[in-house]
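Continuing the series of single-chain predictions for the mutant panel. This is the parent chain; the variants come on the following pages.
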Amino acid sequence: MILIYVGTTSSDINVARVNNRVLLGGHHVPEEDIRRRYERSLANLPLAVARADYSLVFDNSTRNGFQLVAHFDHGTAQWFQEAPSWAAALATALARPVRPGDKDELRAAHLEAADTCSAALLAERSRILASFSWS
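Parent structure:
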């Protein structure tokens, strides 16, 4: 199973983005639901990453779009930048060795799938950024 998680440093960011989406004709989500889901999502993240075979974790807190923070491959973490504040608990919870029995070909298959997911995410990011005026 492959997990792709996109987090932000604050639920305020998510609330503002939903409000902007509504102004552009998108659907509304009550603020209390956004904040509740934000906290619940962060609380569930360590378990979700631990259960997934491969995980990609992105930070989407800035106007630069989502940035790859880390990937996890059968218990082995690779961090690409210092963990953002929202991911600090994840870094601590998942500091563990590689599971016995990992197979190189399985790992290669997961990496290939992750590359495909990354390419799709980058294409979607470009499409979304092109639709906004940041002035």
